[in-house]
């Protein structure tokens, strides 16, 4: 019955008769459906309309995929049509499944690193908009932290773990942040110029990479370009390395990701100058990302809040600020 309702609802977007429409299990704010006609399979992506900053994630992703495919970038869904009034896009269906972090091997790491290097080697232009949380200066990184802290400030004192959250922020997070503000602002790092910025997906990782295993090789498909735009390449690389879903990937493989990326780009010298400055800021940002459930309606999920708060505590203990580079 539900499938019939989906067919009736989405038929108007297709010239050919829909034979089936299936709602896919997809974590996140959007809904993905697999649709079949007599001669093809498609993804119907229904984008969330809730954005505090009026970010049109659907239009950004659709235009990005069209732009990248025109440049000859492989491994992407084909954008077929975007229905702006309904915030719905139709894409080609990509075969494959997501890898669990412990399944990731050398070939997978190199494929992910190669893909990101290809994107980052595209010359950026001012006509390309900024990535949603782009950072081009040290102050931009601190503003990113400030915005997340502002969201956390709305958490009511009567809610679960409120007192423990408050103590953690006051005794652990804020002192480290303030130390970094003093240290890094004294360096007077310049704003990252356009020629050192890159075009990047934003939310990049194995949670957005489909892997199809054939008899002779693996085929990779890269998804989720809703936040695509210009950004600091270090921010994207360090986000990948710090990502919670990548913790189970060995240090050896994560180092290979970085080194292969540097071999395929011209960024080794630039990274050697700044990676030790940006790394602790990304660590602080991930500390606050762990605390995101404290900004949502999770009052009846104390177990989730406890898990996330413990992750934040562990994360901040592992943040390091070095006076010189990693290389």
Characterization of the model:
With 327 residues, the chain is an alpha+beta fold. It has two domains: 93 residues, Phosphorylase Kinase, domain 1 (2-Layer Sandwich); 220 residues, Aminoglycoside phosphotransferase (APH), C-terminal lobe (Aminoglycoside 3'-phosphotransferase, Chain: A, domain 2). Helices cover 43% and strands 13% of the residues. It contains nine helices and ten strands. The strands form three sheets. Strands 1-2-3-5-4 form a five-stranded antiparallel beta sheet. α3 runs parallel beside α7. The chain is globular. 29% of the residues are buried. The mean pLDDT is 92.
Summarize the structure.
The protein folds into two domains: 2-94, Phosphorylase Kinase, domain 1, CATH 3.30.200; 98-317, Aminoglycoside 3'-phosphotransferase, Chain: A, domain 2, CATH 3.90.1200.10. The protein contains nine helices and ten strands.
